Amino acid sequence: MQSTVIAPSILSANFARLGEEVDNVLAAGADWVHFDVMDNHYVPNLTIGPLVCEALRKHGVTAPIDVHLMVEPVDRIVPDFAKAGASMISFHPEASAHVHRTVQLIKSHGCQAGLVLNPATPIDVLDWVLEDLDMVLLMSVNPGFGGQSFIPSALEKLRRVRQMIDRTGKPIRLEIDGGVKADNIAEIAAAGADTFVAGSAIFNAPDYADVIGKMKAAVKG
Ligand code: DX5
Ligand code: ZN
């Protein structure tokens, strides 16, 4: 099992002062910055692209930037995100015609590669590519919006993917995204997640350090 990572999703941050929000959440104990990219095509919402990622790097953000691509097609935008300072790039298999090729493309640009499974996407999509991945990201909401409720079937899915990862013996992260809160993160961790995205639970809280501290304490048990 990998070390615990809390990755606030900046989708719920105040975009009018994004640099300051990211500085504050990192100072409050966040480990990564989760960066949700939506194209109004693969998902019904439109957010941010490589320019904003680059702006955060120029602002001085040195923490890992965890880019979650909800775009179709995927490959065209990968080099731009690598150049913009992405640390890891995750994509949905439904949005790529050649999943293995996209994984190799991400790695060839010096980034870690993740595959994202929607709530109804079967886990057997991992069968022939898992060992090439640095991370599996399980969606516990349907992608497109922050602030949705955690879908409980994600717990069983986490348990099954945790077993698959453990069988490889490789340091592959298991990330969960959607509806993660201080009061459900313990059972999510117990099901096998080591990397936790949380948007509204952190950015809607009055004290970022308080909520991140509660999340880390709950994971430790
Ligand atoms: C949804 C995004 C999530 C989302 C999480 O498509 O991938 O990262 O912003 O937000 P919360 O934690 O509010 O569910
Ligand atoms: Zn996300």
TrEMBL record:
* One annotated GO molecular function: D-ribulose-phosphate 3-epimerase activity
> Where do the catalytic residues lie?
36 (proton acceptor), 177 (proton donor)
Please list which residues make up the signal peptide: none
EC numbers on record? 5.1.3.1
Which residues does the record give as substrate binding sites?
9, 68, 144-147, 177-179, 199-200
Show the InterPro entries listed in the entry: Aldolase_TIM (IPR013785), Ribul_P_3_epim (IPR026019), Ribul_P_3_epim-like (IPR000056), RibuloseP-bd_barrel (IPR011060)
Cofactor(s) of this protein = Zn(2+); Co(2+); a divalent metal cation; Fe(2+)
Keyword terms, alphabetized: Carbohydrate metabolism, Isomerase, Metal-binding
Q: How is the cofactor bound?
A: Binds 1 divalent metal cation per subunit.
Keyword field contains Metal-binding: yes
Q: Which residues are listed for a divalent metal cation binding in this entry?
A: 34, 36, 68, 177
Catalyses which reaction? D-ribulose 5-phosphate = D-xylulose 5-phosphate
- Look up the record and name the pathway of this protein: Carbohydrate degradation
Question: Which top EC class applies here?
Answer: isomerase
Q: Which SUPFAM superfamilies match?
A: Ribulose-phoshate binding barrel (SSF51366)
Q: What does this protein do?
A: Catalyzes the reversible epimerization of D-ribulose 5-phosphate to D-xylulose 5-phosphate.
Q: Which family does the record assign?
A: Belongs to the ribulose-phosphate 3-epimerase family.
- Which HAMAP family is this protein grouped with? RPE (MF_02227)
Name the record gives this protein: Ribulose-phosphate 3-epimerase
What is the name of the gene encoding this protein? rpe
